[in-house]
Design brief:
Layout lengths: L13 E6 L4 H6 L3 H10 L8 E6 L2 E8 L23 E6 L4 H14 L14 E3 L7 H19 L7 H15 L2 E6 L2 H4 L3 H7 L9 E7 L5 E6 L1 E5 L8 H4 L7 H16 L4 E11 L11 E3 L5 E3 L7 H14 L4 E6 L3 H7 L4 E5 L2 H13 L4 E3 L17 E2 L8 H10 L6 E5 L3 E2 L9 E2 L4 H12 L2
Helix pairs in contact: 3-4, 4-9, 5-9, 7-10, 10-13, 12-14
Amino acid sequence: MTAPSFAPDAPDAIPLLAVEPEGLDAALDALPPEQAAWARTLGFKAGSGEVALLPGEGGLAHALVGRGKPERRGRERFALAKAVAKLPEGAYRLDGNLPERELREGALGWLLEGYRFARYKDQTPPKARLVAPEGVDAARLETLAAAEWLTRDLINTPSNDMGPAELEAAARQVAEEAGATIRVTVGDDLLAENFPLIHTVGRAAAPHRAPRLIDLIWGGDGPQLTLIGKGVCFDTGGLDIKPSASMLTMKKDMGGAATVLGLAKAIMGLGLPLRLRVLIPAVENAIGSDAFRPGDILRSRKGLTVEVNNTDAEGRLVLADALALAAEGEPGLTVTFATLTGAARVAVGPDLAPFFTDDEDLATALARGGKDWADPVWRLPFHEAYESMIEPGIADLDNAPSGGMAGAITAALFLRRFAPPRYCHFDIFAWSQSNAPGRSKGGLMMGARALLAALPEALGL
């Protein structure tokens, strides 16, 4: 797949004027009279994503794109991307006095709109390309778009072609491109190196889909950032098997791993002055003669025991061992990304990335970063009154408390028992349920741009 990029600047780039309804008459009056008349004939009203193509002597002389009413702009992200498929082939230069955030969002959305998942069927990308608008960091936007394209590709790949071994291969490629080191612990070696929960969850899978822990390290100076992604490459639910309808999107249960690999690609590509560690427990939660069972009590790397009350709550188990490993070193800021609970979707829906942290400054920076970079996030609490809900009495912890209440919070509290002191957890959906501007149906990166924007403040970069 061709990397996302802006068009080279050229004198023949077609002017693309972004217009809002309130300023439409003034914008048309500034055009040559014949072009203004043509726009009025077309009935152009400057609605969100609406396009008017204005001819000139040599062909297309100008294009108008609607911004929509200001009071409705908060309802959709990447509205400019709605116009991309409506424009004929060519390079376009965005005109108009857009606010900085809207200009940046529009340019990034244009790049994201170009994504197509074409591994199994040819897909035609849009042929309209944008010249990088003046005032935006084009290289940064291209890097962010490339990171998201990688994340989407990994999530969209079906599980027969994206098992633990293939996820490892993707991590190795990311490491090789950036000059990072990588170490992978596979199969029974997980037991020898004391990763019992990762081994237990993945041990029922076929030998060629054996569980593993991927450990990538990059950078020699600066503050430490540890990213941990849930890499459940397919989740049957285990012996507590999921209904058929619930399994249809379970190729995305490695969305946390895909997100941290995309984010790592961006961090390394931008050359941020930090030390990065990426940990991915990669498993398949399969059903077999060696599958772990409801009622089993497991001992974790940290030594805490866990009663298994639902084998479909496996993500927190594999993350627990990875978090314990991170806590043994110099973790700095540690962040987990995981498609962990349906409860998070019930709480905030599919469009928000909920996060948990006790770090007030980080929470503020994340909220600001999400707003600035069209990556909406929402803070949920580590509500300590619910700690007793994850304490079954027969073991230290319960992986799936009964009662059906506060599922996202209890899962986050479970992870915090294993985490280093400075910790943030994202419970992401990693999926777009339908085509939207800049977000085609399928795999989706969530929370990563917000975190990237927060890092300078969070780590003192």
